[in-house]
Amino acid sequence: MSGAVASAEPTVARSRALRRLDALLQGVSRLLMVVCMFALVGAALVLSYSVFARHVLKLATDWQDEAAVFLLVGATFVSAAHVQHLRGHIGIEAITTLLSARVNRVRRWFVDILTFLFCAFFAWKSWTLFWEAYVDGQTSSSTWGPPLAIPYGLMAFGMTLLTVQLLLQVAIGACEMRGTTQHGTGGHA
């Protein structure tokens, strides 16, 4: 019995350290979420101005659409880590109600691993796109011609944050499952 308690202590300590890292990442994500909210409001204002300027004032609006898209891309990708932390992405609940708590925990961990692998690949490709756009000085094809390094950089940064969040969730899930099998109960979930 004391062997089981002694062997569980490192798992609990690892899980505690991972939870601290997760809390740190979540603090950063919350701060970035505020920035993303302002970006969404900014995109709405830019698009509203664009409609008003085009239809009422009969002005050309070359920059508004791209500026709004850049703001929306940034808000979408940079806020993804916070949404993942809350597990706020779309999920199918029908299967989870049929599974036991332990099997559901394993299923969630397996999905986190697959999602981590996909997002890690996506983040890597995003950084290569960003670097290529930055080095080559690529710009959009519009008359405004803003640098494409801006949306690619926002996409890469956001996907990197999401990948780190998923890596932490995979590691925490592994510690929780290890604690569950050692204790034979619900573990640290």
UniProtKB/TrEMBL annotation:
<keyword id="KW-1003">Cell membrane</keyword>
<keyword id="KW-0813">Transport</keyword>
<dbReference type="InterPro" id="IPR055348">
    <property type="entry name" value="DctQ"/>
</dbReference>
<feature type="transmembrane region" description="Helical">
    <location>
        <begin position="23"/>
        <end position="47"/>
    </location>
</feature>
<dbReference type="GO" id="GO:0005886">
    <property type="term" value="C:plasma membrane"/>
</dbReference>
<keyword id="KW-1133">Transmembrane helix</keyword>
<feature type="transmembrane region" description="Helical">
    <location>
        <begin position="109"/>
        <end position="130"/>
    </location>
</feature>
<dbReference type="InterPro" id="IPR007387">
    <property type="entry name" value="TRAP_DctQ"/>
</dbReference>
<keyword id="KW-0997">Cell inner membrane</keyword>
<protein>
    <recommendedName>
        <fullName>TRAP transporter small permease protein</fullName>
    </recommendedName>
</protein>
<keyword id="KW-0812">Transmembrane</keyword>
<dbReference type="GO" id="GO:0015740">
    <property type="term" value="P:C4-dicarboxylate transport"/>
</dbReference>
<keyword id="KW-0472">Membrane</keyword>
<feature type="domain" description="Tripartite ATP-independent periplasmic transporters DctQ component">
    <location>
        <begin position="44"/>
        <end position="171"/>
    </location>
</feature>
<comment type="function">
    <text>Part of the tripartite ATP-independent periplasmic (TRAP) transport system.</text>
</comment>
<feature type="transmembrane region" description="Helical">
    <location>
        <begin position="150"/>
        <end position="168"/>
    </location>
</feature>
<comment type="similarity">
    <text>Belongs to the TRAP transporter small permease family.</text>
</comment>
<comment type="subunit">
    <text>The complex comprises the extracytoplasmic solute receptor protein and the two transmembrane proteins.</text>
</comment>
<dbReference type="Pfam" id="PF04290">
    <property type="entry name" value="DctQ"/>
</dbReference>
<dbReference type="GO" id="GO:0022857">
    <property type="term" value="F:transmembrane transporter activity"/>
</dbReference>
